[in-house]
Amino acid sequence: MKAGPSQDEVRQQNLGALLRHVHFDGPTSRAVLATRLGLNRSTILGLVGDLTAAGLVREELPQETGRAGRPSLVVRPESTRVHVLAVDLGVERLATALIGLGGVFLDRRECPWPDGHPQDPAQVAAILAGFAQEMLARAPDGSSCVGVAVAVRGIVRHPDGLVSLTPNMGWKGVDFAGAFAARLPLDVPVLVANEANLGALAEHRRGIGRGSQNLVYLHGEIGIGAGVITDGELLRGERGYAGEIGHMNVNPYQGRPCGCGAHGCLEAEAGERALLEAAGRDGRLTGADAVRSVVTAADRGDVSARAALHRVGDWLGIGIANLVNLFDPDLVILGGTLRDVFLGSAAQVRSRINTNALAAVREHLRLRVSELGDDTVLIGAAELAFSELLTRPLETLTRS
Amino acid sequence: MKAGPSQDEVRQQNLGALLRHVHFDGPTSRAVLATRLGLNRSTILGLVGDLTAAGLVREELPQETGRAGRPSLVVRPESTRVHVLAVDLGVERLATALIGLGGVFLDRRECPWPDGHPQDPAQVAAILAGFAQEMLARAPDGSSCVGVAVAVRGIVRHPDGLVSLTPNMGWKGVDFAGAFAARLPLDVPVLVANEANLGALAEHRRGIGRGSQNLVYLHGEIGIGAGVITDGELLRGERGYAGEIGHMNVNPYQGRPCGCGAHGCLEAEAGERALLEAAGRDGRLTGADAVRSVVTAADRGDVSARAALHRVGDWLGIGIANLVNLFDPDLVILGGTLRDVFLGSAAQVRSRINTNALAAVREHLRLRVSELGDDTVLIGAAELAFSELLTRPLETLTRS
């Protein structure tokens, strides 16, 4: 029952729309911005003026036009003056990067996880804060950090970012945002989100999902998570827990046991452990290298590796078909180690989708692997950290 | 990258917001409207004036206030002057109603399906158009029909409403909207949508789902469908096919055969046929009475009826747990014959959800049966038919 926006709100919306355009699409002339945003040229002039005065964009000659004559100025994001801090608490490493407006990696640091089980959130926060301080100290004078976001393998409450549960780190009800913020020399909000949701955001804004309004991103590591974009927006659900596809049960009576206590969850049937065990390997030695070695062995004709990929591909196809019937996406993207699993089992995955997904729903479906590779989640964290600036540019910058 | 709205668009949004408020919440004073919509009193005065002049609302003394002193005028929807035509192509009957602004049933007609398999869309359209003409002829002089919507048991493409597939009627690629519109004495769009999506809309706007922003409505008849509300909006997916939960596969290797060609779809394990067959009855004689008779028999202690409800309740719980893990709703509503099935198997359903849904996700979950009963889908069709008017009141009325 929300009423329409005030004139002030409309101006903020327009500033956000223009800034998002150059952030995602890169340098753009004022004339093109006017057409794309459906605003007249004098409005665009005013908006560009405000964003320039705030230090968010600048106008300059394009680098190369390939055309004769004097080229038009283009509006470009101030990548070296405005940045965010993105953090990925991965399964195998802690990674962090300073990423400039427009999505430019300015600096990055990473390390393996420290020893200790369950890992101490304060210790993790201290290591990452050390990286952040190094990178911020090297950032140009006068540049601003406008947001911080952290990707977590686990269940994260929205909007406060409480880490409800991370099976592999043993965290339960941890305020990692608070622990990290307390150690940072910054006065901006620290956001925390689930890795598959951030992967979906990254692929939707900067990867193979650009232009799609309805996609599912599947992220595989030890577990399997999904991030779902519906009608252009990230599906969050009531408390931010949507997308727990790893615990979609597909084999309740005969299924393999899952870490959650149930039997036959998708990640129990199609996760890294299931693949490695089906291939006769040690299921405890999960990770990208272990998964790749099964795919490579299958390529070379190893019978048990082939059978394992066939089996896991079948369950993966069952899971994807269910998602297709439920979400009607036009695109399903496989990321993390599911990228390799899919490349080694695509025929089986597709065959199962053809059996299980309704014809009308699967008709225009595209199945693709992640384009952004190992940085998908980190890029998604940066996009989350930028989201406030991209919605209310001037207010956000004033606060940071 | 959409820019903010123009002043004209803001005015339309405000008119829509005010009209939606009185449509859903009933007669409301101008002072309360100002508070609820966050607009000042002079803006409200202008909006009420425009809507009154258009014949969409009127101001009058409230019927009973229970308070001393002169009561304030209230703004109420013109239920007898502005209406829609709602149609439900149910499994057992064709139903149609004239429903006034504010959700008032003004008139209704229904009949069993005509003989003939596959049912002829033109014949069905002709019967319903006959009902419509009778009801429209009895509507007050000067009243307007502003929209028509039809609920279909099947897969319906959005936004054009093409009926891609209706398993029980045998329709495939049928333009029922066109066939019906051609026989109606009306110049308004005819919308077609899936029954579970309309059930979700009805419960969200007028039933037990009021106030919830993230709910799943499960509709059971011969098949099982779902309508999902996420962040206050109906989930449609890329082509309108989202919510095909009946074909979410939960038992691919040992499952019962499904009409779609796969094995172990949720509707094959938990649909009416599965219940009746598990109870030792004729699985072809589906329908509300047959389902109720199993529930009644179980209440009286019939062992096979109890075992059947236990079995079907277990699969239903598995299906609901999957939806809970995927959508993180705060409310799951069971409608159609799943209402009776759930009342007869609630303990089993809840027990399975407790095993299969993640603790954080199920923690605040409420499971409820539909409040709107047999009219849920018809009410949802009416809300769909009103949606254009409630978004752009004056433009829509001018056209109708």
From TrEMBL, chains A, B:
Alphabetic keyword roster: Kinase, Transferase
Molecular function per GO: kinase activity
Gene3D superfamilies: 3.30.420.40, Winged helix-like DNA-binding domain superfamily/Winged helix DNA-binding domain (1.10.10.10)
A Pfam family of this chain: ROK
Record family assignment: Belongs to the ROK (NagC/XylR) family.
Protein name, UniProt field: Putative NBD/HSP70 family sugar kinase
Taxonomic placement: Bacteria, Bacillati, Actinomycetota, Actinomycetes, Kitasatosporales
